[in-house]
Design a protein that fits this description.
The structure is a single chain. With 141 residues, the protein is mainly α. The chain has two domains: 82 residues; 49 residues. It is built from six helices and no strands. Helix 5 runs antiparallel to helix 6. The longest helix has 23 residues. The N and C termini lie far apart (39 Å).
């Protein structure tokens, strides 16, 4: 059971700190310069974590296994980061930006999963979409 929950705990804890850090990014720094520092540190952390966790310590062998998704993910992550930084700089409040983005994401992913991954959509999910839409309306008033 723990294997199901600890990743969610990591995601939630990381997202809380992520939003605190993103909101606390100095407004005077160029957002991309800030992200450069962030990703340089992340790259160092990932390299260290690789050597601590990998059985085969050949980083080049592992890098050769990457596909298009790994490359696109790098660009997409920059989009996520700059989107949040700009949202906070443009006046979004912490208690609404993440909720708005995540509800919107959840609704869109239901349809992405339906169309591209042939997952089913249930009446419960349709009800959830309606509740999410109502929630977005309520927090934006």
């Amino acid at each position: 059971m723990w294997k199901l929950f600890y990743p969610i705990l990591i995601i939630v804890a990381s997202n809380v700190l992520y939003n605190v850090c993103t909101k606390s990014t100095p407004s005077g720094i160029n957002a991309f310069a800030s992200l450069f520092i962030t990703y340089a540190l992340a790259a160092i952390f990932c390299l260290a974590a690789f050597f601590l966790s990998a059985k085969d310590k050949n980083v080049f062998t592992e890098l050769s296994k990457a596909n298009w998704a790994t490359l696109v993910l790098g660009v997409v992550i920059v989009g996520l980061e700059i989107g949040y930084i700009l949202a906070y700089r443009n006046g979004w409040k912490m208690n609404t930006v993440s909720v708005t983005a995540n509800i919107s994401l959840a609704v869109i992913l239901i349809f992405v999963a339906l169309i591209f991954y042939k997952e089913t959509i249930t009446l419960r999910q349709i009800g959830g979409i309606a509740l999410c839409a109502g929630g977005l309306l309520l927090i934006s008033i």
